[in-house]
Amino acid sequence: MVTTTGDEPLPIRIETTDVEALEAAVGVLRALDYRQGGGFCRDAVRVVKTASLLLHWGTVPDPLRARLFTVLADVHNLLGWTEFDIGHDVPARRRFERALELATEAGNDNLVANIRYRLGRLHLHRHDVAGALTEFAHGRAAALRSDSRRALAILAANEAWALAMGGASRAALVRLEEAEAAFAEAATWPEPRPWEAFFGTADMAAMRGTVLTELASVPADAITHLTEAAGRYGTDMARSRSLTLIMLAQNHAAQGDFDEATRVGTEALDLARDLGSVRPKDRLAPLERLLRDCPPDRAVTALLDQITRYRSDPLP
């Protein structure tokens, strides 16, 4: 987009179509991340470079400036998520921090809330409950400033997960009920922003199943909600479906139903093999421990062998 004469860049005027093209590119990459995992989203770096060049060399009309900063913040947010998805925590944090700076510059509190949610998920995946709750609290404050009920529901559901992981069962269930009560009114909400549009009925069911799994109270209830969530995830959300199936298999194993745990676990593994994500590898650890404790069984042994190979294989 930037032309030069010799070594000197020519000033360009940024048009709405330039920003729309960047927004569309981020949308394509986000869909690829949901479907195949962060390892397949390497082209996001090119979008960052393009947007950065536009900001540096271009003349940006005031009405487009916040929108362009938002695009750049959004793609850094996406890059942080993809780095997290492939197990690169330090680069992920750097991307999220840059995304926060840009979203703040854009005055976009809704996006700030989403970035804080994703930072919280990074902490949660590493079982850092305190770190996760701190980020979710910052996110909730930003969501309140932006008056986004969807962002508040997403954060409440994830706070419930963190509280359950930390053993605060009563508080976890209260936050979960708040999220569900809010989400029950989702039909009245404005159209979601691109970065929060993923959170739908399937995700709410998955979050209830996840919280109940963490609380290890009633596996049958967790199974009901996780089964519903897995059934709602299509091929466009393959990673979410794989992670949900892994947790579903874990609950079947916790109930002593190793036949169903093996069946569901095999389905989850088949999906996970094609994903550019380390998260299924990490999430398989509790299921693997439960399967190793079960009575000798040929199918279980075969699945354990597959899990061992998959967890040691590099990402596609």
Mind sketching the topology for me?
Blueprint: E1 4-5, E2 8-9, E3 12-13, H1 16-36, H2 44-57, E4 58-59, H3 62-85, H4 89-106, H5 109-125, H6 129-146, H7 149-165, H8 169-183, H9 201-215, H10 219-232, H11 238-254, H12 258-272, H13 279-292, H14 298-312
Parallel strand pairs: 3-4
Antiparallel strand pairs: 1-2
Helix pairs in contact: 1-2, 1-3, 2-3, 3-4, 3-5, 4-5, 5-6, 5-7, 6-7, 7-8, 7-9, 8-9, 9-10, 9-11, 10-11, 11-12, 11-13, 12-13, 12-14, 13-14
Write a compact overview of the structure shown:
The protein is built from 14 helices and four strands. The protein has helices spanning 16-36, 44-57, 62-85, 89-106, 109-125, 129-146, 149-165, 169-183, 201-215, 219-232, 238-254, 258-272, 279-292, 298-312, and strands at 4-5, 8-9, 12-13, 58-59.
Give an account of the 3D structure.
- Helix content is 74%, strand content 3%.
- The chain is built from 14 helices and 4 strands.
- It has helices at residues 16-36, 44-57, 62-85, 89-106, 109-125, 129-146, 149-165, 169-183, 201-215, 219-232, 238-254, 258-272, 279-292, 298-312; strands at residues 4-5, 8-9, 12-13, 58-59.
- The strands form 2 sheets. A two-stranded antiparallel ribbon has the order 1-2.
- The longest helix has 24 residues, at 62-85.
- The radius of gyration is 21 Å and the shape is globular.
- The model is unreliable at 1-10 (pLDDT under 50).
